[in-house]
User: Fold this.
Amino acid sequence: MKYALLIYADPSSGTDMSPEEATTARAESMPQWYPVFEELGKADGAATGFELEGATDAKVVRVRDGQTIVTDGPFAETKELIGGVFLADLPDLDEAIRIAALVPAAEYGSLEIRPIIDHSRAGATR
Assistant:
């Protein structure tokens, strides 16, 4: 089963950093992520992960009455926003949970695990 592991965290923690401070903080935190990358590689050699730009760079698209509306966003009533995603083909939900628990952001944010619908399977409706 393919899973998306969505990484949520409070983006305000880095907003008061200079670019140099942010680069240093990122370099210092990277070693905590290596075990996650290693475990994902063991479970699925084709697993991918992406860090997302900040929500301030995002756009939200809606179509209402045939009109395309583009707004800055997202502006959700929450302190946690999605900051990254891993995509992996894992044997089961238990393995997805095990790997999600290794992600450093789970200690200060949260991870959402979503099965990915495989439309390529013949006769699949979900």
